[in-house]
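A quick aside before the break. I want you to see a complete sequence-to-structure record at least once, exactly as it would be stored in a machine-readable document. Don't worry about memorizing anything.
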Amino acid sequence: MALTVDELRGLFLFQHLEEHQLRWLAEHGTVETSPAGGPVLSEGEEATCFFVLLEGTVALCRTIGGERVEISRTDHRGSYFGATQAYLEADVASKSAYQMTVEAITDVVMYQLPADEFGPVVREWFPMAMHLLEGLFFGMQNTQRAVGQRERLLALGALSAGLTHELNNPAAAAVRATAALRERVAGMRHKLAMLASGAIDPATLPGLVRLQEKAVEQVAKAPERTPMQVNDAEDEMVDWLESHEVSGSWDLAPILVAGGLDVPWLESALTVCASAGTETALRWLAYTVETETLMNEIFDATTRVSTLVGAAKQYSQLDRAPFQVVDVHELLDSTLVMLAGKIGRDVEVVKDYDRALPPLPAYAAELNQVWTNLIDNAVAAMPGGGTLTLRTAREGDRAVVQVCDTGSGIPAEIRDRVFEPFFTTKDVGEGTGLGLDISWRIVVKKHHGDISVESVPGDTRFRVALPLTAQPAEGAP
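That is the input. The structure line, written in C-alpha cells, reads:
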C-alpha cells in the first residue's frame, strides 16, 4: 500500500515539493504498521529506512547506563525518524546506524522509504541544501573533535603545570639541603681535626664517637613538639650551654633541640664522657645532628619526587594495558596528587572509601580523565574554599563513585543540560563545555555505566556507577 500524491502533499515535510517529486515518493514508499508495545527500530542497527508517522504514538529512547531511557514521545502526524542522515554522502550514509530506539506506544501507521533510494534522490533534488547540511553536519563533528582535543591539551597543560610546581618544591628542598649538608660535613672535618690535634685526650675520642652514634639514634626518634614546647626546650638548653661556658648558645640550642637532644640527654652524656661538655665536642655533636637532619630532609624530598612521578605514571597509565582490572581508589588518589596544586589549601579533601570494593575492569587512563573533570569542576564551584568529598561504595554488581562539593550548587533549570556538548556555566575562556560531555561518553559509551548529578546549594554530588563485570567497548569515546 502507498500514499497518493495528495496525501503526501498533506504532510508538512513534503508539502512544498513539486509534482514529480511527490510522484517519486508515492512510487517508492510504502505504508507500514507496527503493533503497540513493539520496537519500530532499534538503536545501533543499520539505518535502512526513513519513517514518517501517519497515525499513533511512538517513543524515542536511548540506552544510557545499560538502561533504556525515554527521550521524547510524539503523536504528531508527519513526525519523522530513522535514517534521518540518509542525505549524507553515500559512503558515510551507508555506514550509519539508528541513533535511537523507537517504540510503538499504540498501534502506529508509518510511511516508509528505503534510505539507499531516498538519500540519493534528496541530494539530486536539493544540491545546494545538501552542501549546506553536509557542511553543518561535518563541521559540527570536526568542531567537536577539535575542541575535544583542545580540552584534553588544556587539561594536560594544567596538570603539567601543577605537577611541575609540585615537583619543584621537593627538588628545591633537596638542592638546598644538599648545599647545607656540604657545609656541615666540611665543618665536621674541621672539628674532627681539632679533636685529633690533642685538645681533647685521645682516650676520650671513642666515648665521643659512641655519643655521636647515640645522637644519630636520637634524631631518628625525635618527638613531635608544639611551638611552645620547642621554645621552652630551647630556653632550657641555652641556660645549660651558658652554664658550661659554651659561646653562641643561641645558635646551638635550636639545632640540638630539633634533633631531639635535651638537657637530660646531655647530662647523661657527661657521665659517659666528661669531654662531652666542652664547646668543641658539643659543636661536633651539633654538626652530627644537623647533618642527620639534612639527610632526612633530602630523603623526604626525593621520596616526595618519587611519589609524584609514581602518581603521574599511575594517572597516565602509560605502562599499562588500555583495558585492565584496577583499584578505583588508586586512580582517585593519583588524580588528587595530580590536581594538588589546583585544589590548594582552602579546600578540605575527605576520602570516604569502601575498601571492600573489588577491583574494577576499566580503561584506567580514561577514567582518570573523568575524575579529573569532576574534581576540577568541584573545586571551581568552591572559589572561597569548602569540602571536596570522594566516596566509593558497592551497589549490587556496580561500583559507585561520588564526587561531592559544598559549592553554590547547580540551578535546577540547567541541571539536565550539564552533560550536553559545549554547555558550560564557567566564564568565557575558562571552559569549553566538553569536560562533562567527554566524561559522559567515557562512562556511558565506553564502560556501559551511568553518570548523574544531584545538587542543592551546599551539596552537589556527581554519581558515577560502573559495572564490576564490564567488557571492553570498541572505539574511543
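Two observations worth writing down. Residues 234 and 253 are 5 Å apart (CA to CA). Confidence is low (pLDDT under 50) at residues 90-95, 427-433. We'll return to this after the break.
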